[in-house]
C-alpha cells in the first residue's frame, strides 16, 4: 500500500501523502518505463535485462500464489470433512506449503546469486515484480498475503544496497508490508466497508470478504483435483453399521506412538514444528514464559547445522535459539533433517533423515528428548522400525492449528479452541516459523488457562503436568497480559458538566471529559459509536441512567467486553440516620436542596455495576464524596494470574466528602484528570510491561494527586466484583523524533515533575532475565497506601511485570524515552533510548531518537553518528536523512549535509519545508 492510501485508511490521507507521495500513479506515464521511475532518471540508459529475466522471476511468484490458493481450497469447510479427507487434505496442503518455502528461497536466490544478482539488473526487474504484487487485476486482497515473506526478504536485500534506487525500493516494499498487515486486520475484524479506489500505484484494498474470496478460489480449483494431483483419490465412505458391536473404530494406534488422546482430561501439550526460526521462535518462547507453560519444539536438522564427512556436527547460529529453549525449560525433539516426506524414503536416505538430526540435537545438548515427529505425519513401517531401534518415539497430534495454511490469526485461535473443546484434551500442532502463530498464541493460551486446562511436558518417559504449572492453582502463571488483548468490545460512558443551573458552575469538567474520550479512542481503540457522551444540558439524571439501562443494555454488550465510565462534575455526601455516609454524583438538573432525590446515589451505581454484562467495569469519578460499599481492595499478583476468569467492578474517585476538586491543572484540566491522562499516557505502567491495570492506575494517580492538591483520591472494588482488574494495553509509540516533534509546556512539565515525585518505588525483582537472552530484571513495584472507598487507608500492590522478549522490552524503553523527551528530561531519555538499543541493536527508531537527544543538547557530531546508524538500520526512513542533514550542517559538514538533504527530498518530495530546502541548497 502506498503512503497516500495508508493515510486515508488511518483518516489522515492528506498529511501522509504529503510526506510520502513519491509512488503516485500518473495517468500520463502510459508507455513509460516502470524501471525508469523506480530506478531513477538514468535507468533507461542502463543495460537491457537478460532475455526472459522478468518472466523467470514472475514464474515462481505465480507458483507461490497458486500453491497458497490451493492450500486454502484444500482446507476450506474443514468441519464438513471426514477424517480420511481431512488427513489427505492436510498432507497435501503441507506438501504445497513446503513447496512454497522452496519457491520463496528460489526467488531470493535469483536476486542474490542468479542471473539477476548484478545490481543494475536487480533494480530493473524488481519494480515489475512489485507492480504484479501491488496491482495485478487478477489478484484478490487475500492473495497478496502469500507474498509477505518474499517481500520481507527482498526488503532485507535492498537494505544491504546503499544506492538511492535501492532505498526507494526498500521504502516501497515497506509500504506494501504495511498494506498486507492492514489486509490481515481487515479479514480478522470481518469489516463490511469497501475501501474507495485511489489513484495509487500500490496495493489498493478491495476488501472482498473471506468467504467470498474462498468461493472465488473454489471456482478456480477443487479439493478433489488438488488431491488427485498429489496422488490421492478418496474412496466413498462405507455405509454406517448399526448392529451392536459393529461399527466400532479399529484401534490402529501403535503402542510406541503418541497421538494426544491418551492424555488426561483437560490436559494439552503445545508443540511447535519446523524451527528454530531466528525471530519467531524467541517471540513464542517469550509468550510461553508469560503464561508459565511448557512446550515441545520439533526441530528440522538442517536449521541446526550439518554433519561433515568426518561425522562431526557443525552447528549454525540458529542452534543458539535451541539452547535458549532448553534453558527456559522447553523440550527439543526431532523433525527430520530436511522435512522430506519420509513415507516415500527408504534405506540410508531414511535413516539419515532421522539419525543425523538426532546427532545434531545431541550436539546442541545431551538433554534432547527421544521424541520424533514425521513431517506431514507421513510414516512407513521401515521408519517406525528405525525409531524403535534408535529408542525414539513417534509423536502425532489430534489438534491441528493449520497455522501453516490459515493467514488470519483470529481464525487460527478459533480453530484451536473449538477443536480442544471438542476433544477435551490433546497435542496441539503449531509451527514456530510464522508471524501469524505469534499473533494467535496469546489469545489461545489466555482462553485455555481461563478454562482450567493443564499444560503437560515430556519428562523422559511420558507427558506429565509439571508441579506449579498454570492449572495447578486454577490458572497461576497467566499474567495480566492474558486479558490485555482478549476483551471482546470496549464500551464507555463519558459525562462532563460545567453549566450547572443551581450548583456552582465548573470550568474544566467538559474539557476533562472530552480529553478522556479522545484518549479512549486514539490510544486504546474504543470505537466512537460505543462511547455514550453526555455534556452539560444533556447530562440529566434521566439521560445518565438511560445510558446504562437503555443504550448499553440494548447495544449488544457481551460477557467478555469491558466498560469504562468517566464522570466530571459535582459530587456530594449525605449523612444517613444510621451514621453512614452516602455519596452522590450530581446531574445537571439536580437541586442542592433536593439532591437526595434528584441526584444519583452510589448505591444506584453499585446496582448498575452488578447488573452490567461486561467482564470488567471501571468507574473513574472526577468528583469528591464518600460513602461506598467496599467489598475488596485493589489488585495483587495472585488474583491477576487468572484475571480473565474473574469479574471486576472497580472505582477510582478524585477525593473525599470534605474536599473540593482542584481545577488548576495544566491545559485547562483538573489536577485529577490531568494525572489520570498522564497515567493512561504511560506513566501508570508502573512495572514497565506495557499494560496498565486499574490497580496500577490507582497506585499512580492517588499519591500523585494527593501530592499536588488537597485531594486524597480513593480506590476499591464494588459489590459483585470477583477480583478482576480492568486492563489498558498501551500502544507502541513509533514517532521518529525530529524538529517537528512537540514537547510539553512549562506548566505541564512542572506539574508532571510534582506528580512523579510521589511515584511508587521499585523493589529488587526476581533474578530471572527476559526470554531468549540476557536483559533487565522484571520490575516489582512497592505497595502503595491509598484510601479505600470508605475513606480508610489500605495497601494495594501493583502486579509484577510480565516477562517480555528483548524486542518488546526495547519498544517499551523507547516509549519511555519519548515520554521523557516530551518533558525535556534529556538525560533520562538518553538512558532509555540507550537501553532500547542494548536490547535490540538493529532498532532504527531508537537509534534516530537517541541521535535527536544528542541534537537537542547541541552535540551535533554525536547526533550525526546516530542518524547514520539509523539509516544503516532502515535506509528508507526519510526523517533520518533530514535529521542527519541538520546535524551535519550544524557541525560544519556542508557537503555531506547537502547529500543527506538531497536523499530526504527524493524520499519525501512534498514534505513540509521541502521547497525551502531546495531553494537553500540548490536542489
Account of the 3D structure:
The protein has 923 residues and is an alpha/beta fold. 45% of the residues lie in helices and 12% in strands. The strands form nine sheets. Strands 2, 3, 6, 9, 10 and 11 form a six-stranded parallel beta sheet that branches. Strands 15-14-16-20-21-23 form a six-stranded mixed beta sheet, sandwiched between helices. A three-stranded parallel beta sheet has the order 1-8-7, with helices on one face. β9, α16 and β10 form a beta-alpha-beta unit.
Q: What's the total count of β strands?
A: 28
Give the percentage of residues in beta strands: 5-15%
Structural class: alpha/beta
Give the uncertain stretches in residue-range form: 1-47, 189-201, 239-255, 471-485, 629-641, 766-773
- The shape is globular
Distance between the termini: 28 Å
DSSP summary: helix tally:
33
Report the sheet with the most strands, covering strand number, pairing sense and barrel closure: 6 strands, parallel
User: Average pLDDT value?
Assistant: 81
What's the helical proportion of residues? 40-55%
